[in-house]
Amino acid sequence: MAAARRRLSVGLGLAGAACALLGVCMLLVGPVIIKEQVVKNVRIDPGSMSFSMWKDIPVPFYMSVYLFEVLNPKETLQGAKPALNQRGPYVYREFRYKTNITFHDNDTVSFLEYRQLFFQPDMSNGSEEEHIVVPNILMMGAAVMMENLPNFVKFLLSGALAGLKQEAFMNRTVKEILWGYDDPLLDTINTIVPGLIPFKGKFGLFVELNNSNSGLFTVYTGMKNISRVHMVDSWNGLKKVNYWQSSECNMINGTAGEMWPPFMSPTSLEFYSPDACRSMTLVYEQSRKFEGVPTYRFVAPKTLFANGTDYPPNEGFCPCMQSGIQNISTCRLKAPMFISHPHFYNADPALVDAVEGLHPSKDQHALFLDVHPMTGIPMNCSIKLQLNQYIKRVSGIIQTGKIKPVVLPLLWFAESGSIEGAVLKQFYTNLVLIPSLLDYLQYIFLGLSVPLVISAAVLMARSQDHKITESLRLEGTSGGDLVHPPAQAGSPKAGYSGPCPDVS
What pLDDT is stored for residue 129 in this prediction? Predict the structure, then answer.
């Protein structure tokens, strides 16, 4: 019995030690293995899990466009406050793919990324053939751009505008406003002021967006240094742009806006946006979960489009107006165009008050990125921007009437997408479920080792107690024969052989 107990205690002790050893090994080695797998699969390498995602983005992206209709064009021309009505959304399925992928010896890769947009009638609130009254963007822009030219030049343009029957506001279809229309005004302007608007063909707000690329990006692959993966080395061969007034504002920082280096901290992330002609910094807001996957949510700080007075580091983006809008004329052919959050969210209230019909809301108009911090891969995002035009009365150009100076919203759009389907399932299994199971197992093994070792110790102690007790008993029994001397012959005790009486 004692031997069996000893064997059992030894077995339990060995099992407990094995569980403890396995738990400690998993505790120490598990994170290292997971980290190695993440590094292996997020770098830009044809053999990595994320390479196909990076090359041909499988996430279904949609661009939702909202146009601002001017309800009172005649009154606005006479100096009244513009009244706006939001129309849309007009939704487009967006496909992105990379071409000209070229790997370099300095741990970088170059590529061109193209976008293709397809209208989705069933997801839209309206058709592309709908007519909407908007500012005559080309004419009003040219008028402001020519404000400081000699009066005779402006009178010449005004006469040409009259001959072409151009007015301050136009009634065109959604398709024409976004994707372009032929306008003889373009040739007329370039005849009067050569090079003022140096492009030919159709004019539209998104005419250069569809079937076009965002410039030649060169980014780090992460093969030598994983902390640099996806970080931009150059854009169109430039380490800095030259649109702005300070070196800091001209810097190309962060990534191309698709993925970020893994093992992120909850601080901030940066990316370079060719559409905004600048680098942008988003800040950490909160930790969340998307379909069970842990994420960090990053949002735009209020300082993103603040003017130089309210936020001195933005002085380089000036000339500025109110906070909440950014002048992009230097990268948009000097046209008086501004970008902002939709409905002037997070902007100076004076901008909202200058027009009627705007209702800024965080839920509807704030941009966000939900990024898986371990891999740096966005799980869910919605990037929202508004395009605005500065219009006003320009003396010498009678078509501008008595329009009061105002930053007038033209449209806003949201580019949104989230990982779903088989990609999400694979992502969840490989990078959430398996690491979680390993995490639980290491603590299960460590937890099991404690009762096993304790049980082994208790059994061993009981075995020892039993052994000692048995030894003492045996010693006591054999010791009794030695204590009592042999009885003398003739003694009354003769023949005594123990505590029991002789019954013979």
Answer: 97
